[in-house]
């Protein structure tokens, strides 16, 4: 047990999907996994383990933002022997070329968070995905005919911009595709422990065109994204 996870050793599989929302974690398990067992309920951050096509897979909700995600990633890696992690979530598109329902395979994550700055001091650490997982996800998506794009995300500590500006302009000029709130922490911590990590995120809204997915379309797109993540782990 850890301060935030009540599971016993062996309750988690070596492969873990990381949605932010605990309700989405339960939906993933109900929709895709067999022989599901609940392994964590502490603070409502649901963790479940089951099988997908005969392989053990776990799902652990992380909450929103780098501080919350970092707690669960650290504890999974410190205590439970997890080897591969894929974040599955949504992101906001930063250009008009990539449409809602497109799936971003996050090659790298910039961030405005002080977590990395505090840790690395004078260095600007490059938070990057595991290349093997990234390549497998790209190949799997192509075979499935999914609309995917590989590139950089920005992990932002702020969901709401109190100044009402456009803080992502310089990032857009340097090819950043979308914004979300967890990936930089995931990639940094995975590198520290020598394990493999990837973020697969569906564009649910576009900050340029203001297009948004309807609830029905969002759910359908999540099915494609989660199946891609599970098949990538296969």
Write up this protein.
This protein has helices spanning 22-32, 66-79, 114-120, 131-144, 169-173, 183-193, 215-232; strands spanning 15-18, 34-40, 47-52, 55-60, 84-93, 103-111, 127-128, 148-155, 178-180, 196-206. The protein is of the alpha/beta class and 234 residues long. The chain has 7 helices and 10 strands. Helix 2 runs parallel beside helix 6 and helix 4 packs across helix 7. The protein has a single domain (15-232), classed as Nucleoside phosphorylase domain (Rossmann fold, 3-Layer(aba) Sandwich), CATH 3.40.50.1580. Helices cover 34% and strands 28% of the residues.
Throw out a few tags for this protein.
single chain; 234 residues; alpha/beta; five-stranded mixed beta barrel
Count the strands? 10
Strand content: 25-35%
The rough form would be described as globular
Number of helices: 7
In the CATH hierarchy, what is the superfamily?
Answer: Nucleoside phosphorylase domain
Structural class: alpha/beta
Overall helicity: 25-40%
Main beta sheet: 5 strands, mixed, barrel
Radius of gyration: 17 Å
Blueprint (SSEs and pairs):
Blueprint: E1 15-18, H1 22-32, E2 34-40, E3 47-52, E4 55-60, H2 66-79, E5 84-93, E6 103-111, H3 114-120, E7 127-128, H4 131-144, E8 148-155, H5 169-173, E9 178-180, H6 183-193, E10 196-206, H7 215-232
Parallel strand pairs: 1-4, 1-5, 5-10, 6-8, 8-9
Antiparallel strand pairs: 2-3, 3-4, 5-9, 6-7, 6-10
